[in-house]
Amino acid sequence: MGEVKGFLKYKRQNVPHRPIEKRVHDFDEMDLPLTPEQIYEQTARCMDCGIPFCHGAGCPLQNSIPDLNELVYKDKWQQACELLHSTNNFPEITGRVCPAPCETACTLAINDEPVLIRHIEFQVVERGFKEGWIKPMPAAAKTGKRIAIVGSGPAGLAAAQQLVRMGHDVVVFEKDKKVGGILRYGIPDFKLEKHILDRRIEQLKAEGVEFQTEVNVGEDISAHYLHKMFDCVCLAKGAGQPRDLNVVGRGYENILFAMDYLKVQNRLCSGEYKDESEIVTAKDKVVVVIGGGDTGSDCVGTARRQGAKEIHQLEILPKPPDTRPPDTPWPDWPRIMRTSSSHEEGCNRRWSVMTKKFSGVETRVNQLQCCEVEWMMNKGKWQMKEIKGTDFTLDADLVLLALGFLHVTHDGLVEKLDLKLDQSGNLAVENYQTSQQWVFAAGDSVSGASLVVRAIDNGRRAAASIDDWLKE
């Protein structure tokens, strides 16, 4: 390790953001990266903890975090970049959008602030691109096997890169106009500017990955075509079925799923829209976001940049505690109160609130009828109960449903392939192989909605399973 008592000498220095009064007027990335000197001090905080839970219990990719920190501390940046890429295909993405479960599993997090792992990762990969260390790695020889990957999100892209480097011919099909899936259309530019994604996609193309966009597999091309033209298929379609809110008035046209709303703005940022009638904006509107997770937070930040008059965010669960509670002990991901950069920009947040009804005029909602709820443990299960006398109304010009996702969409390709599902509606797999031997699956299609870092890990593991199967 670098500095034996560095964790005592240096305090954690969080990454600053651009001033709120400036960043809310554009969709540029917010972070202001630390200097090399500051990064040196942050890597020095990595202690000789014996069992590094950060890359075992914390990181789904099992990045070699203590070794990475030591290499940066010793100014061996190129070696650090190579080490990072040995386990993570896209550290420039996880270095921006990952919630960093590695940091909450850091040994220092027991009674101090954890090592600044995510930003160190970001610094390593960005220096790698700047110095030209990150180059295409085409396979030395071809196997003659052809693989189709359906979906170009993090799982699909990771699987594609791993497989093409093994020598297979890989074609990625994407139903949208551009490659990237949720990375391009679901994550706002203020968290992930899309030229970052394009930079990596160019590497995949140089390695031999073929991308076919605006192709809806199952409709534009059939399952029969896939079976005839490819040795196997990997489904990386994501968990595209959003959770709905089935209450009176749900049908008003200005009640939208969060991902539909975010997709519009991401397309605007990339210059895809030409017909302004398709544009949905929060400008001068009272916006209500229902759902308190990351997607809801992204809606808040997007609405603020669009010029919303007011923003309210409602969460049906109770407000989390400020410090780690006993039910999520270290090194588990803690159930604590989190305030995102979007919340800091202005938002009225309420917890333990249930929406009972939408009211409106003609085709548009203009009011929510809500109440407060309490949560009680009953026979080992949490149950919700409405609190009498707490009913209230909330005006709204735009309502965004950010209630998470249920599972992969079943209509289309999944039904036509007659694939078995698990109890949650996800694709049932064994070692990433579905009920059809020639069809594999990875990412949220298998796990349900999860983290980008887990999707990358899934894609890598699915690729290994596919390669083994093709060699049989």
Describe the fold and architecture:
With 472 residues, this protein is of the alpha/beta class. The protein has three domains: 6-131, Alpha-helical ferredoxin (Fumarate Reductase Iron-sulfur Protein, Chain B, domain 2); 146-240 and 406-471, FAD/NAD(P)-binding domain; 244-403, FAD/NAD(P)-binding domain (3-Layer(bba) Sandwich), CATH 3.50.50.60. It is 34% helix and 17% strand. It has 19 helices and 16 strands. It has helices at residues 6-9, 20-23, 36-44, 53-58, 65-73, 77-85, 91-97, 101-104, 117-131, 154-165, 182-185, 194-207, 223-229, 258-269, 294-306, 341-344, 413-416, 444-447, 452-471; strands spanning 146-150, 169-174, 210-213, 232-235, 241-242, 255-257, 286-290, 310-314, 348-350, 353-361, 364-378, 381-386, 392-395, 398-401, 405-407, 439-441. The strands form four sheets. The chain has a five-stranded parallel β-sheet with strand order 3-2-1-4-16, with helices on both faces. Strands 6-14-7-8-9 form a five-stranded parallel β-sheet. Helix 15 links the parallel strand 7 (286-290) and strand 8 (310-314). The longest helix is centred in the last third of the chain and has 20 residues, at 452-471. The model has no long low-confidence stretch (mean pLDDT 96).
Overview features:
five-stranded parallel sheet; 472 residues; Fumarate Reductase Iron-sulfur Protein, Chain B, domain 2; alpha/beta; FAD/NAD(P)-binding domain; 3 domains; 19 helices; globular
